[in-house]
Write a structure and sequence with these properties.
Distance between the termini: 56 Å
Order of helices and strands: HHHHHEHHHHEEHHHHHEHHHHHHH
Shape: globular
Radius of gyration: 21 Å
Length: 431
């Protein structure tokens, strides 16, 4: 049986093994476990019970990650997405006065539309139409994005009204603990330990428990929000704008994440294509619908999967391990709550550093490649959005190709998407 599974997941071709994949899954889970507590805290502002949302997060992330691993065979974990959960709570429920049950119905409908677009091949056309210079730029930009999140969580940087960002309080206990974790993880990495990031996070979590900087929470429940989505209400209200927003942001966030992770794992084909992409997109669509049914906002591919890839994850076994750990976290949620931001922040910073290696793949002497690549890479962390960065790079590439007289070289679907993306920027700018 194990040998059949090894053939299915192509262990020999990808040069991996069970131990390597399990360590990678543990690493990814440990790095993204914060979502178990961040997601409930955000959706609580939408009037949803915290403990129930924690359970829904465990259930949906577990189902989605196992589905991605088993169906698409990629080391990509999934969970309710940051940004989309904030839009759900603050933009839709609080900002527009829409009941959270109706908002969940809108999320479900956006997932259904995703599935239809996937079946028609539209999403695949979009992926295959992304200009080649943007592949490396997205990976590097997400590396910067991950590092920015890590530095923010560590307290190394803080908001500043005059400059936007500034140096944080380096005397704060949490920041000192993060710096210690950065040293431990970095030292283990340079010594060649595959489980370096996981080992570093375990050490920091242990230190946080001993020094009282983290603690164990309470058990969770799910009954009050599961299957409470109001699809009819979403259709009655005609929430076209909301459904479109969920659909569009999910699409481009997932595409950017997918490109970066496939590139990081060395799973792209020579022509830049991604094997089994249809299965990836189906898993993505079904996961969003399942998440809405469980009681949480849009489920997406997680860029923190890069931590597991850095630890050696190459197959769907990594994602399956993550999914099983999320399910195990359902009754053990109080123990998982002990993982502090100080433990995950060093991992994010170091993974971001490793992803920056892709900048050497960009031909900086060719301005038609360099300008869109730079705009993509810079906009992802500076706008705190993978979707914004990829959109800006996409539009700038089309405009520059047209201005240089090489518009005929651009794939037709780029010309279909460019006005849509311009309209999106106009809509975002009007707010």
């Amino acid at each position: 049986m194990f040998r059949a599974l090894e053939r299915y997941f192509a262990f020999d071709e990808l040069g991996t093994g069970w131990r390597q994949e399990i360590i990678a899954g543990l690493t990814t889970f440990w790095t993204m476990a914060y979502i178990l507590f961040v997601n409930p805290s955000i959706l609580a502002d939408a009037g949803m019970p915290v403990q129930a949302v924690m359970s829904a997060t465990c259930v949906s992330a577990g189902f989605a990650s196992v589905l991605m691993g088993a169906l698409a065979r990629y080391p990509i974990a999934m969970a309710p997405g940051m940004g989309l959960n904030a839009y759900f709570a603050y933009g839709v429920v609080k900002g527009m006065g829409v009941p959270w049950q109706t908002a969940l119905g809108a999320v479900f409908l956006s997932g259904l539309l995703f599935l239809l677009l996937t079946a028609l091949g539209v999403r695949r056309w979009i992926v295959e139409s992304i200009p080649k210079p943007l592949y490396a730029a997205v990976a590097a930009g997400i590396g910067l994005f991950i590092a920015l999140i890590g530095m923010k969580n560590a307290g190394l940087i803080a908001a500043n009204p005059a400059t936007g960002l500034a140096l944080g309080n380096l005397r704060a206990p949490e920041t000192l603990l993060s710096l210690a974790g950065l040293v431990v993880c970095g030292a283990l990495l340079v010594r060649g330990y595959r489980a370096a990031i996981l080992m570093g996070m375990i050490v920091v979590t242990g230190a946080a428990l001993l020094t009282g900087q983290t603690s164990v929470g309470r058990p969770a429940a799910i009954e009050s929000i599961a299957f409470q989505l109001d699809i009819a209400g979403a259709l009655r209200l005609g929430l076209v704008e909301i459904i479109f927003a969920f659909l569009f942001v999910d699409l481009f966030d997932n595409l950017g994440t997918l490109l970066a992770l496939a590139k990081r794992a060395g799973l792209q084909q020579a022509d830049g294509g991604i094997p089994r992409i249809q299965r990836i997109l189906i898993a993505d669509s079904v996961a969003t619908m399942a998440g809405a049914a469980a009681g949480t906002s849009t489920v997406v591919s997680y860029i923190e999967s890069a931590a597991g890839i850095a630890a050696g994850g190459r197959t769907g076994v990594t994602a399956i391990v993550v999914g099983l750990l999320f399910w195990l976290a359902l009754p053990l949620a109080p123990m998982v709550s002990a993982i502090p931001a100080a433990a995950t922040a060093p991992a994010l910073i170091l993974v971001g550093a490793m992803m920056m290696s892709h900048v050497r793949e960009i031909d900086w002497d060719d301005l038609l490649a360099a300008i869109p690549a730079f705009l993509t890479m810079a906009a992802i962390p500076l706008t705190f959005s993978i979707a914004n960065g990829l959109s800006l790079g996409f539009v700038s590439y089309a405009v520059l190709m047209l201005a240089s007289g090489r518009g005929r070289e651009v794939k037709p679907f780029v010309w279909v998407l460019t006005p849509i993306l311009l309209a999106r920027f106009y809509y975002l700018g009007s707010g």
